[in-house]
Structures are given as structure tokens and as C-alpha cells.
Design goal:
489 residues; alpha/beta; Amidase signature (AS) enzymes; eleven-stranded mixed β-sheet; 18 helices; AS_sf
């Protein structure tokens, strides 16, 4: 693997600015890598390689005609100048497809950039490709009728996760260095976990969600969060600063963090119930290893706590979503023109005649039974959500972080999520609690699959989780140290 593939976006940008390497060379190396791996993992669904090379040449020409001081000033204005990036296909990128795996939109191309894509471009980054997702971004295996299935670069017989699974896989396979994902129930963090990379779900209402399909409405706008995915922890903070724009001041991203002064908590148990898997023993040991190394390095005590309400994470997420005031999922299945009948689609699917995936059909069917849930039950879970949010906010305050499992199992084999559909509860709960969460790689399992943990903080304290992610990468080893040499592609 080319040495440039082992550099963070921050380091690549510095080398490009200092004329140690050309942007064109970096772009071409990533294009070559995508071509090597994509036939095996199907992560990239469309590319703009030719345009990217032209942009890179323009960058190189611009920098060659600048003095050293001018280039340094340019680095402050455009911190990612000349660096490639990828984006989940659900985000609009001018001239690129934007169907989110929905057959009815398969020929649709975006007329303009989503705000977050535009912000990365304005920071100097160069889009090279868009990546696969699950149908309408509401399932945790990335497969659809338009683009097919994405595979895990560590074992192609296993899932890459979803809904930002193409982004996770192309990053995990070193076909990209930074990317854009979106997360309403774990769609950034689960693919990041399965593919051995970093992913951050920000505090809500900071990074714009506009320009993606489908988008959130009603209270869902507070659950859906657009955020960065990357291979190196040092890229998380600058990416979030760029994505957040002026809203970044809400997150204290410029504030120095003394990690040794933070309060650390850990929860290993409590989410699993008869609908949600209990934590795998290897993942439990990985989490304990992270906590042990933090204690040893920082001289802190990681307090193991239990919070009984977490066992209702699935129910809390489901009731919060059901009462959010968003459009019905079947409305999006019909491309916002009409509502699809999921029961009819299920019958068609039996004979291979439906244009929808089984997970999408299943979600549409579940939606039809919402009215059967007693109002009292819904209110009880909404009250529980408020109590859990307040309790966790009180514990964490402005200087506490929680180490939490990213997922209860290692990457499953293809189609197996249908037998464990609700395991996303480990990530989804923090969407409806309005809390930032950073997934961090935590080594490899005995079978060579990535493991990881979430670092969670109180609303608005994203700078704490990002600072801890840097320390975890140093102590446990992120993608580069533990994952790069173990891939099977």
C-alpha cells in the first residue's frame, strides 16, 4: 500500500501546501486504490475522477505560484486544500446521483451541493466519489436494488454496516481518507465500528442536514445528525469545525481539553434484552482494555456504572421517532409522490417482483401497526427518555465522558441483521438523548474483525469526545496500527 495512504488528511494537506507532494499525485493514488478494492467491496457507486484530477492540477498550479507565507495563509483559509474526500450518496453533490438506493429515483442527479459538501469544497477538499447506503438510509446493512450490496474490507462475507456503509467500507479499505455520513440511529457509528474507523455523531442542530434524501422533518431534525467519518482521529476536529461553520462556537471546538482532568464512566451492560443482543465477550474485553489503558495513561479512575433505563433504549428510540411528526416511511418509498403499500410489496417480493429491499418493506409494515401502541405506553417511554437524558446530563456535566459499546456483536454475515434487527439500539439511544458520540476503533477480534467503543458526552460537549478519541487512538491503536495490515482485500 502506498505510504501516502497512511497519512491523515491533516498531514496530507500540510505536505501539499509545502510542495512536498502534489495534490494530483494524492488524488491519483486514491483513485488507484478505489479501483483496486471496489470490485470486491462495492463501496463507491459513482465517481468524478476526471474532474478531481483537473481540480488537483489547478490546486498545484495555484500553490506553485505562491510564496511560503502565502501558502501558510492559504492553509488557514482552506485547511483541506488538495485533499480528496468521499460522501454518502444520499447527500447532494452537483452532477452526481442522489437516489439513496430507491429504484424510483435511480436516474436522479443532484443540481447543487448539499451545504456540508459545499463547505468541504470551500475548505479546499476535492470530491472523488459517492458511496453506497441502505435503501432510504434506514437499515444497518448497505444493500439496495439500485447499487447492490457493500462488503466489509476485513471480510467480504460480512456486512459493512449502514446506512453509511459504503462510506465506512471505502474508508476502512483505504480508498478514502475523510468522508461525510449521516446518523439518525447509528448510521455513522455502526459502519465506522464495522470497518475499523472513526465516526462522530455531533450534538444536534449544529451541522446542517439540508441537501440529503430523505431528509428529516418535525422533531426528527434533532435526531438526524450529519458528521465526519475518517481513519485518523486528528481529522475529526477540523472536519467538524468545517462542517459546523459558524455554529461551531456552540461546541467549544477551539477549547483546549486536559483529558486527565475529565471524569470517566463506563457502561458494559444494560442495553441487551429479549429484542436486543447482549454484549459479545470479546467486545466487553476490548472495552475494559480501553478503560484500563486510559486509567494507566491518565491516572484517572473509570467508574463502572449501571443505568437501568438503558435496557429500554430500543423502545425509547422507537417511541421518540414515532411521535416526531416526520413523514411516513412509505411516503419516501413512493418517492414522495404516493405512499407504497408495504404488504403488497411483500407479496411481490416473494416472487422477486418488488423494487424494494426486504428491510425497507419490513419497516413500512411495522409503521402500519403504530396505531396499535397504547397512548399510555408511548407516554411512559417519552417520560423515560426525558428522565434518562436528565440523569445522564447530570452525571456527565461539562467534564465527563461515558465509554459505551458501539454495537453488541462483531460484523455479522450478510443478511444476518434481519435476525437481529434492533441491535442498532446501542447507538440509536444517543440520537434521541441529543448527545454527541464518537466511535473509536479498539483493536481486532481473534477472527480479525474490527472492535470499537463509543465515547459519549453531554449535549454540546463534542470537544470532550474528540479529545478522548485522540487518546484512545494513541493507546489502543486506530485504523493504521491495528487494521491496515489485516484486511482481506
Amino acid at each position: 500500500m502506498d505510504p501516502l495512504l497512511h497519512l491523515s488528511a491533516t498531514k496530507l494537506a500540510k505536505k501539499i501546501r509545502e510542495l512536498e507532494v502534489s495534490s494530483e499525485e494524492v488524488i491519483e493514488i486514491y483513485i488507484k486504490r478505489i479501483r483496486e478494492i471496489n470490485t470486491k467491496i462495492n463501496a463507491v457507486v459513482d465517481d468524478c475522477f476526471r474532474e478531481a484530477i483537473d481540480e488537483a492540477r489547478d490546486v498545484d498550479e495555484l500553490l506553485k505560484n505562491m510564496g511560503k507565507d502565502e501558502r501558510e495563509k492559504m492553509g488557514k483559509r482552506k485547511p483541506l486544500l488538495g485533499v480528496p474526500f468521499t460522501a454518502k450518496e444520499s447527500f447532494s453533490a452537483k452532477g452526481m446521483p442522489n437516489c439513496s438506493g430507491l429504484m424510483a429515483r435511480k436516474d436522479f442527479r443532484a443540481a447543487e451541493d448539499a451545504p456540508v459538501v459545499e463547505r468541504l469544497r470551500l475548505a479546499g477538499a476535492i470530491l472523488i466519489a459517492v458511496t453506497n447506503c441502505s435503501e432510504l438510509c434506514m437499515w444497518w446493512e448497505s444493500a439496495n436494488r439500485v447499487y447492490g450490496r457493500t462488503c466489509n474490507p476485513f471480510d467480504t462475507a460480512r456486512i459493512a454496516g449502514g446506512s453509511s456503509g459504503g462510506e465506512g467500507a471505502v474508508l476502512g479499505g483505504a480508498g478514502s481518507v475523510i468522508g461525510i455520513g449521516a446518523d439518525i440511529g447509528g448510521s455513522i457509528r455502526m459502519p465506522s465500528f464495522f470497518n475499523g474507523v472513526f465516526g462522530h455523531k455531533p450534538s444536534p442542530d449544529v451541522v446542517p442536514n439540508a441537501g440529503q434524501f430523505p431528509n428529516a422533518e418535525g422533531q426528527e431534525v434533532h435526531f438526524l445528525c450529519t458528521g465526519p467519518m475518517c481513519r485518523y482521529a486528528e481529522d475529526l476536529l477540523p472536519l467538524l469545525q468545517i462542517m459546523a461553520g459558524e455554529n461551531g462556537v456552540k461546541l467549544k471546538l477551539d477549547e483546549e481539553v486536559d483529558v486527565s482532568k475529565l471524569k470517566f464512566y463506563s457502561i458494559e451492560d444494560g442495553v441487551g434484552n429479549f429484542l436486543v443482543s447482549k454484549l459479545d465477550s470479546e467486545l466487553r474485553e476490548a472495552q475494559r482494555n480501553v478503560c484500563s489503558k486510559l486509567e494507566e495513561k491518565l491516572g484517572v479512575k473509570v467508574e463502572v456504572i449501571m443505568m437501568g433505563k438503558f435496557q429500554y433504549s430500543l423502545q425509547i428510540w422507537a417511541r421518540m421517532m414515532a411521535t416526531s411528526g416526520g413523514k411516513p416511511f412509505c411516503h419516501y418509498m413512493g418517492n414522495e409522490v404516493e405512499q407504497v403499500n408495504p404488504f403488497w410489496e411483500f407479496l411481490k417480493a416473494i416472487f422477486g417482483l418488488s423494487s424494494h429491499t426486504l428491510p425497507a418493506i419490513g419497516l413500512g409494515m411495522l409503521e402500519k401497526f403504530e396505531s396499535l401502541v397504547p397512548q399510555g405506553t408511548t407516554q411512559a417511554y417519552l417520560q423515560m427518555a426525558q428522565e434518562l437524558r436528565q440523569e445522564l446530563q447530570r452525571i456527565l456535566g461539562e467534564n465527563g465522558v461515558l465509554i459505551f459499546p458501539s454495537h453488541p456483536t462483531l460484523a455479522l454475515r450478510h443478511n444476518m441483521p434481519m435476525f437481529y434487527p434492533f441491535n442498532f439500539a446501542y447507538t440509536g439511544i444517543f440520537n434521541v438523548l441529543y448527545m454527541p458520540s464518537t466511535q473509536c476503533p479498539a483493536g481486532l477480534s481473534k477472527s480479525g474483525l474490527p472492535m470499537g467503543v463509543q465515547v459519549v458526552a453531554a449535549n454540546g460537549q463534542d470537544h470532550l469526545t474528540l479529545a478522548v478519541a485522540m487518546v484512545i487512538e494513541e493507546l489502543v491503536g486506530g485504523w493504521d496500527r491495528l487494521c491496515a495490515s489485516k484486511q482481506k482485500i
